[in-house]
Amino acid sequence: MVAAGPLASLASALLALAVLLSIPGTAWQQDWFLVALYGFLAFDYAFISLVPAGYTDGNMLFHLIRWTPP
Are 46 and 6 in contact (CB under 8 A)? Predict the structure, then answer.
């Protein structure tokens, strides 16, 4: 449950990358920067939420994997 947020961000970032790579030659090619920005932000959110600092999903995952006491 804790890993769902970072995994969803990573999945949407990979989907944005796939769309970005398939966009040349289509009617959407003039809007490539929107797809690139969305992909960058999704990768950024995935990375930031996995950093084990403060009250983040990364910190929760770290403590779940290490079996630390509450």
Answer: yes
Residue with tokens 């009617």, as numbered in its chain? 27
C-alpha to C-alpha distance for 60 and 39, rounded to whole angstroms = 25
What's the rounded mean pLDDT across residues 19-47?
93
Rounded to 5 degrees, φ, ψ at 30 are: -75, -15
The SS3 of residue 3 is: coil
Rounded Cα gap, residues 11 and 22, in angstroms? 17
The string of pLDDT tens digits covering residues 3-28 is: 888 899 999 999 999 999 999 999 98
